[in-house]
């Protein structure tokens, strides 16, 4: 792809409380101590222009200052000299009409500060300060101490007073994510809780739940404290500490609800076996909790492997471009981060410029549309963590497998966070899917029951709704789905199968098979009146010796149970770890079952949006009254299931099929990336739009007019 010179002018926005709405493409530059003498401001201005960045996050201070700070013990880069590296870039960014966010990192201090202020330091279980493991002579700070509450606050206030910025961004502000045994922290916790700090070596220490709640509240109060401090100086400025995919789930939402007008998710790249749809899921998951708040996804220019660190390296351009594209297709605004202003390898510039320009093109034409889908995954609260240092959301491999199956099946879907589940969030949702989720909140169960009674579809698996009460374990959604526990959880099992009980839409596609593989973990269940069994488990039998591998007589318990409800709702319960086992083994029979269950639960009405063809694609649907946009992201690549992508494989012969709305007819159909009208034909009430070639992505943008109204010119017959 070549650079489009017509897209070089960045968008701008005023200095106002809602400035963040115009911050849709981010450059981040993280200085190193030796950067100031060689800082090439012109190079970075060119990068910001080429990427059409309208916002920048720039290193200012905290651990190290890149401006002439006047605060004692605020370590100033020894190579800053008489330059103001931070200020120079801020000035250029403002000339380009960009928003500016100052980055501070309070996680460590130098020896002089540590000696003068030992009360700032993180302490280990033995009561001694914790030296930085990567850089001897530095010391970890304690986020509960005056290091964050006073010292970092003064730094932020100085930056806001002296520079024309819109926000302050805190990186690594939560400390080591370990218990700090700082004497002041210990005393504060003891005074409030009446307990000593929990023992890190004992996950069953009764102090853990109390400490978790205390830590959550104190960190949330810190967010409020910082935000109040900068807004007192300039009311439009916000202090926005870094977040992960959990957003505010590990904070006190009641305290920080109004403190995050947008989110910045620090997931800089793929590692291990993360699939290429990982960036898109971040956008969906954020929208599931806060549907109306922007979220930006931080992507590194280099490879991300937490054990093999190459911060001055460059990722394959196909990988970089693909991460950005899949992220923004699902609503995660593009943000790239470059460590060190000096460039040893500039191969990252072109792919990021290309990807950011693709976003600009899509934003200009369809950015006003909202994401939508009629299938949703319930993003359940993780209630299993014994310490506060987990990831903050549930799902794991169970969710990964269901996500992969729906992507393969080309079923567009969204997320709804359990905390945000309400009747209005379920409006327009045909099928709610719960891959896993023990101990659902009783309010969640009540909302789901009412949803099914109104005609909604529900697909659950394994321990979704499994609850232990005074009378023992039960399935909280069991009465609704027509199942009851007949035993406990069993596994891991080998050689576990299930038979096709009778012809049913869920058993289609297994021609020639009397039975198919099941899972490794199963729940023994029975059925209630009105339920129908689609699959039954084959009784357990050994996997070795080979001479003993054959079925034995025994109870053939239900494996997959469906139920049709009087109000039109449909439910399906799968009594084994379907999502997790599909993720682990990627057996097509498991993926087929997940997709079939969702399609059956939707009911007889065909999907409003379909995309046909071969290959792996990630779909996103956006709409507004009279408009619909379908984004097709090309994930077809040998490295789709783990990084890095090494090549781009164009996708051919795809077709987007849309239901023509009642009372409407086609006004226009356009291919946004190709920049051309789309060929469009209405057949039997459905609009067919062929896509001859997709490189990174294509966006089909369709507008409708009321029947009989004049139609605009479009690319084919209406």
Automatic annotation (TrEMBL):
<dbReference type="InterPro" id="IPR017853">
    <property type="entry name" value="GH"/>
</dbReference>
<dbReference type="InterPro" id="IPR052177">
    <property type="entry name" value="Divisome_Glycosyl_Hydrolase"/>
</dbReference>
<protein>
    <recommendedName>
        <fullName>Beta-galactosidase trimerisation domain-containing protein</fullName>
    </recommendedName>
</protein>
<dbReference type="InterPro" id="IPR029062">
    <property type="entry name" value="Class_I_gatase-like"/>
</dbReference>
<dbReference type="InterPro" id="IPR028212">
    <property type="entry name" value="GHL6"/>
</dbReference>
<dbReference type="Pfam" id="PF14871">
    <property type="entry name" value="GHL6"/>
</dbReference>
